[in-house]
Every structure is written in structure tokens, then in C-alpha cells.
Design a protein that fits this description.
Layout (H helix, E strand, L loop, with lengths): L11 H20 L9 H18 L6 H8 L8 H14 L10 H11 L16 E4 L2 E5 L6 H14 L4 H15 L6 H14 L10 H7 L1 H14 L3 H20 L1 H4 L9 H9 L4 E2 H8 L4 H15 L2 E3 L11 E4 L1
Antiparallel strand pairs: 1-2, 3-5, 4-5
Helix pairs in contact: 1-11, 2-4, 2-9, 4-5, 6-7, 7-8, 7-11, 9-10, 9-11, 10-11
Length: 333
């Protein structure tokens, strides 16, 4: 067992939140057909874009969800070059999650290098100077001196590797400790949230696509207050409880909003949708698909049959930016 143990306590509230989140995970597992791989490609991408936009917005990036989506689709966006670069970096970094180990310092440094590429001169390296965190020109946290960073990060990662805490709790403790250490000159907030997602995804792969950052974005003041209170108390318990509540809120959203978060399982389809999937050959127009069901109303067919199949990730449009184009065709994914 490593000598270092982060200061926090397991409370009845934390145990209750872990139980509640586990219950929601069970419900989500039912939606997934007990197979995390059944998350549709569109759901994965949509939730990832939400995660990136929210995490960057917390750090004062002004791009909207629509603009972030456009950037990732290669479209021109009216925005600051730095903000556009942040989006591209973040997406590339999150896409690498399956290839990193949460307890490996080299992997953590590589993630920071990708996340901050072209944004800071020391991307991928621990900071070499002191740093303080300010709110309204007032210092609220003075991070440990740079000379202590190798020891502190090695201790924290060794603790993470050996701890027998529930992953939900361990990920929250790590998140706080990482922000307290503040190992980089910039990008610590987005890295802390990224690494908590990595820890959780190595426990439950579907959690790589849980957009908890959107909850934090809407509760930004509470997020910073929880970090500050933990600093003052020299104890992460309150922050762990806050983050578990945020995770619970995100889980409840994906479980209770099936129209937006439903996964691509064929058991969720009706007979007409099954018939369309069985008969698509290559790329087909709306009129060609309507003939299988003897439909005559384009609008109803598009909304009742095609749109659900698109959202579930079974088919894709050849001209996604112009859904009603006369040249539009559809194909299986």
C-alpha cells in the first residue's frame, strides 16, 4: 500500500449516491441490451461533442454546441483561432481514451500534449514554475511548488493503482487531488475532467460517453465552490459528494430521455423500420424506401421512419446538412 492517502471520508451520503448511480447504471445497461458496444455511433459522437463543448465552456471557450459540431465536421466557423484549436485538440484527445491507462504518468503527459497542442509552449510537460488560481483578481488557491510535482503525481497515481475504493469514489478523489496539485501551467481543469472520464470508462466503457461536463457547466459556481471548500477543509469529502451528484444527474438524464439517448438496438424498432433496414441496398432515395411500405406522405415517412433510424445510428444520410434535399439518399451504417 502506498504511503500517500488522500484526505477524505466515506460518508452515508457518498454510499447512498454510489448506490443510486449504480441503480441508474443498471437501467442504462438494460437500454444497452447489457452490451456497452451497442451505443450507436451517432449517440457516441453526439455525447462526445456535448462533453467537449461543455468542458471547454467551463474554461471560457465561447463556441456554441452548433459551432463545435461544425468545426468537427470540417466546416468554416466564425470564431477565435485558439478556441477552434481547443475544440480540435479536445476531440482528438478524447478519441485516444481507449489507448491510455489512468495510472500511467507517461500517458497522462501524452494526453496533455495532445489537449494543449499549439496552445502552450510546455504541452505534455509538468510546469516548471509556481502557479496560483485567481477569481476576481483574488487568489483562491496556491498550488504546490513545481519542485514537488514529480513526487506528488507519482504518489497520486500509485494510490489510484492500488486503491480498493469503488471506481466512482476513486475517480472523484483523483479529480480533486489533481486540481489541488495543478501539475500543468494550463489545461488542468479540462485534464482533470478528462482523466476522471478515463478512470470511469476503464470500469464501465459506456461512461466514456456520459456527458457529465454538461451538468458541471450548468452548475459551474457550485463546482468551483466545492473545490474551494475542499481546499479550506483540507479534505475532499465534500467535493466527492458534489461530483457524485453531478454523475447521478447525468445518468438520470440518459436513462429518462430515451428519445434523445436511445441506443441502436433492433429490439427498439417497429415492424416498418425493420422492413426498411432489411431492404436497403447501397444508397436509396426517400421515394425508393417509401415504396417498401407503400407510403405516400413524405413528411410523415421521414419523421416516423427515417428520423428514428438516423438518430439510432442504423442509417446515415448522404447529404446530412440538407435533410430534405431532392438529391438526398440513405445507406446502412
Amino acid at each position: 500500500m502506498p504511503a500517500y492517502q488522500p484526505p477524505f471520508k466515506i460518508t452515508s451520503e457518498i454510499l447512498s449516491l454510489v448506490a443510486d448511480i449504480s441503480e441508474q447504471l443498471g437501467l442504462w445497461s438494460v437500454l444497452l441490451g447489457n452490451d456497452d458496444e451497442l451505443l450507436s455511433p451517432q449517440l457516441r459522437r453526439g455525447n462526445r461533442i456535448k462533453t467537449i463543448q461543455a468542458s471547454l465552456a467551463i474554461e471560457h471557450n465561447t463556441l456554441t454546441l452548433e459551432q463545435v459540431t461544425a468545426v468537427l465536421e470540417g466546416k468554416r466557423v466564425l470564431g477565435l483561432p485558439r478556441e477552434i484549436q481547443e475544440v480540435r485538440n479536445a476531440f482528438a484527445t478524447y478519441e485516444q481514451l481507449p489507448y491510455w491507462q489512468s495510472t500511467n504518468l507517461k500517458h497522462l503527459l501524452a494526453a496533455h500534449e495532445q489537449l494543449m497542442l499549439g496552445l502552450v509552449d510546455d504541452a505534455g510537460r509538468l510546469r516548471q514554475s509556481g502557479v496560483g488560481i485567481y477569481r476576481d483578481e483574488q487568489i483562491i488557491h496556491m498550488a504546490p511548488p513545481s519542485s514537488q510535482l514529480p513526487r506528488l503525481m507519482n504518489d497520486l497515481l500509485a494510490w489510484l493503482k492500488s486503491t480498493d475504493l469503488h471506481p466512482l469514489v476513486a475517480s472523484c478523489v483523483f479529480h480533486y487531488e489533481f486540481e489541488f496539485i495543478h501539475p500543468f501551467s494550463d489545461g488542468n481543469g479540462r485534464m482533470g475532467r478528462l482523466w476522471q472520464t478515463l478512470i470511469l470508462s476503464q470500469w464501465k466503457p459506456a461512461l466514456a460517453y456520459l456527458p457529465v461536463e454538461t451538468v458541471i457547466r450548468h452548475q459551474q459556481n457550485q463546482y468551483y465552490a466545492a473545490l474551494g471548500a475542499a481546499d479550506k477543509a483540507s479534505d475532499a469529502t465534500g467535493f466527492v459528494a458534489y461530483m457524485l451528484k453531478a454523475l447521478l444527474s447525468a445518468m438520470q438524464e440518459v436513462v429518462t430521455a430515451p428519445s434523445e439517448h436511445q441506443v441502436g438496438t433492433k429490439s427498439n424498432l417497429n415492424a416498418e423500420q425493420h422492413l426498411i433496414l432489411e431492404n436497403i441496398q447501397g444508397e436509396m432515395t426517400l421515394l425508393e424506401l417509401m415504396q417498401f411500405l407503400k407510403r405516400v406522405d413524405r413528411s410523415k415517412f421521414r419523421n416516423q421512419i427515417i428520423k428514428p433510424l438516423l438518430e439510432a445510428g442504423f442509417i446515415e444520410a448522404t447529404i446530412p446538412d440538407k435533410p430534405t434535399s431532392s438529391k438526398q439518399k440513405y445507406r446502412l451504417i
